[in-house]
Write a structure and sequence with these properties.
- The chain is an alpha+beta fold and about 150 residues long.
- The protein folds into two domains: about 1-45, no CATH class; about 50-150, 2-Layer Sandwich (TolA/TonB C-terminal domain), CATH 3.30.2420.
- The chain is about 35% helix and about 30% strand.
- The protein is built from three helices and nine strands; from the N terminus they run ααβββββαββββ.
Length: about 150
């Protein structure tokens, strides 16, 4: 009988003593600092990457005469996420923006390591554009993008 009562008493009082041992100020301090630390890390990641893009006509389509040539317009082109310590130097990527606005055949021209290249290729494949037009007709365009941590 005494053992059962002791077990019940122990189970009921253990959470109360644990909560009483934690000072409320430390809980508040941790909850206030966590969003700030996360925001600082996000700013480091987002601030660490710059992008330069250029587009040229695809050679097999250059035989057409274009009086009104419009470059592709970026619809969704998010930056790949890099951890600054892993990402060194720059990555250059070449790709084709098809008549459907999707990225085709991304190719690494300048590498920053296997992990960085994989992230860049995976991200570039998800990009969407309004395709370039030649006299109002959608055409393929070659794009080159350079990512660097400057």
């Amino acid at each position: 009988m005494f053992r059962r009562l002791w077990l019940v008493w122990f189970v009921l009082t253990s959470p109360a003593t644990t909560l009483a041992a934690i000072p409320p100020a430390s809980n508040q301090l941790v909850s206030n600092q966590a969003p700030r630390l996360l925001e600082q890390r996000e700013q480091q990641v987002f601030r660490a990457l710059t992008r330069a893009a250029e587009f040229v006509t695809v050679p097999h389509l250059a035989a057409r005469r274009c009086e009104d040539l419009a470059p592709p317009e970026a619809l969704t082109t998010p930056d790949p996420l890099f951890v600054p310590a892993e990402f060194g130097g720059k990555v250059r990527v070449s790709f084709i923006v098809g008549t459907d606005g999707r990225v085709h055949s991304p190719l690494i021209l300048e590498s920053a390591g296997l992990a960085g290249d994989r992230r860049v290729l995976a991200t570039v494949r998800t990009w969407r554009y309004r395709p370039a037009t030649c006299n109002g007709i959608p055409t393929e365009t070659e794009g080159k993008v350079e990512f660097s941590n400057r």
